[in-house]
């Protein structure tokens, strides 16, 4: 046991000694090793593999407690890399060293200072994927296994002497084994508080994870980044799996308390993002499992898939909530070049959204930007929306929002639009062309001021805008529906709404308008209202409906329905100021009273006064009514009425006009024109002024005016410009009752049921004559009518100054007189002013009718100076009247009679044919200035076609007259003979020229003339002759002779030698005239005055139609030339010729016979005819008077008359 213990001790001691020796050997051995081998091996290995040079300041080796190689102050450098290692510790394997091989298990770098210098990028830079492949080859070439540690080191990356990256406090562990590297490192940088990376790299992949604490991007050495970022704070966790640069998988968890940049302008607060990023080839896929931001508020998740080469993109994002306001600002800044983003956020300005879901798939850029496949759904709240084109803004909007196919849709939306509360709204707004649609529809409730704002906003017509600006104050609430349809270019806006209890202050209205309710609508062409109920002053509107149409330049106002109670004295002053109502107020005015309008219509196109149209149904009470055709205002106590430009109606209307009263119903068509038509019926008290108006209105002759005041029991008037129908029952102040029915027109005259009663006297008359329809005169008269009665009825009785009595009944058929029949008798005295024969008076008439024959016992007629009596009979024979009788007349003035028969217009009246044989005895028949006396004639008429008046005996200017006058449709024929012997010439002068005391002589005349023609027989075809002879007479004051003497007295040859016509006159022995008639021209063949003082001869013509005379006259004083020469004192008046030759002066007479002109003629103007006449008349030689030219002119200037 002891030995064993000793052996064990020795063994243990031996082992210990071995260990000690071995320990000492391992301690001493490094000092005897060749360390240059290690240096060269390290240099060789780094140079061959990494093209770097190495400088080792000091190297040491130790074996205990484990083998270790320490390098101090080592520098490694290349073109772009330089590193200084204060201490590099390597732990090689012992056995390979003993065999001169270096196998390092691990390397520890302490206080390393690494610097990388980056050169400018080469123009032919290698693609990242090529670099990756190259590094894989290098990694694959590493045959050693190592564990590397880096402690308390720093790294700096330089680019052109500028530091672009620094890292310090670097800790790193790396294991290299079997072409794999396991790396774990952490370090700090100026832009990050701590960065941790743990990764495993192999020949096929790179996997690991990373953490970045408090990353500040604004401190990144990248100039393009840090200049745009103002402030950032990011915590980042990553896990990655890189297969290659074209295929990797990245999981991330990002938290950023703050991020702020200026370009783009981004501000994020408390952002969290979790998800993965996958890349395979050109395809990228991003999945967000969580995205939360406090500012802008976003909470959601989604995914994104894109192929950058093919520009294929698809994404889907769902958010539980989202801050639209912040997101809008963020997206507009980040995607500032995106038209789609701009177009969306031109509409959406702010708000919040829940259940936000957005998705899009696009195969190209065009499809992506067109938003054709873009879809968005969200529940919006507190939204701010700008509606394009119409310029409206929606505030605090909420509801469902959808965007699809480039159109923004909204369902069941609500919000505030320009002060209006919108609800249940639908929108469809195009975002991208060609979907620029604009459709909005929704109910709204708003203050009346907002409703007015809508109208001002939408109505483009400047006249309507002008009127809307006159509304200065509004109170009330409106509700309704707003509809906008169209596109961005043209949008039609329509409003439908209702107002309950509101006030409007409109500058054109004298009173505020209070509205109980009204429904209204607006579209681009018109504003309509209906169901308007309210109050205006004391006037009440029960219901109104109408529209303002501004589709054309001229605004069209139409009130289609209206009812209510109007206070006239309040409204009238205001209405009269409206210029477009001028035409209405010129014709119609209600100045006071209460007007209840049951229905009304009003139409007017502004700027066109002729377009004014209206129709009112109303009840009046205590009103004052003016109509343009009334003589004065009518005071209406009560009544119903209707008025329009073309019709006025009254029903049960009671009132006063002046002192007259009325109760009437009826209508007046076209009341404000001269062609008005009147239909009235009623009763009342008629006064003078009221009667004047009625007679003037109905065109009733003033001669039929009755005395007033009178009580009208009943009346009925139907007046038309072409006819008048009147039914009336009147009781005048003298208690005379009068009733009749009158129909009157140019073609018809009918008096039916004319009944007059005065005490016990009665009169009944029925007279009906219709020229146009049935030319039959119906007559029925019975009773007695006196002038006393008519004087009591009529203001001025111009019809009867005697009596009218009898009984007669029957008819006269003017179309076929054989059907005519009258029975009865009639006695008339003092009847005048019959229709069409105003001044013709039937002084007395007595007739007895026996069927088809009327026996006129006596008929005395007067017309001014015309008076005649007739008797005879009239028979109705088939188609003509047979008239036989006698006429006895003191005076018949055909001028006055012709005035009774004015030229008729082309009225279709029946032509009554007459066969007549009438013996006429007329003391004086006057026509124009012709007076025929003591006429006895036989007048024959054959069926009104041929009329012959055979003058058996007559007297014209004391000349005996006989012959005939025959007329027919074709022509008129005249054949008259005149003769007289030894008659007073002065009476002829007085008869022809209405001048007395011209002659003192007798004369004889014989002549006749014939004429035939259509209109003017004497001018057309006439012939005849006249011979006038007078002896031993004197001529006084004859105008023509006086002018001849005046001319001769100027010539000294005759001065003082001519007789004085005013005293002794011109005595003549003979005065003869011969003349012939040819077609209205009287040819004076010779006119000779043989006087002791001189001889006068003449020839010429007289135009009967124009009364113009043209004659050449020779005047020869009975004195010889010898006597004349002894009297001449002026050489210029010497006459040539032989002694005992008579001198003759030539003259010309021309002009109207009432005042002719007389002038001297030159000798050359005297014809041979008149000269021969003078020679034959004197029987001696004749010399023509030839004064010098200048003296002749002086004489002419002095004596031409």
UniProtKB/TrEMBL annotation:
Matching Pfam families: YhdP (PF13116)
PROSITE patterns listed in its UniProt record: PROKAR_LIPOPROTEIN
Record keywords, A-Z: Membrane, Transmembrane, Transmembrane helix
Annotated transmembrane regions: 7-33
Residues covered by the YhdP central domain: 840-1158
Annotated GO CC locations: plasma membrane
Stated name of the protein: YhdP central domain-containing protein
Origin species: Desulfofervidus auxilii
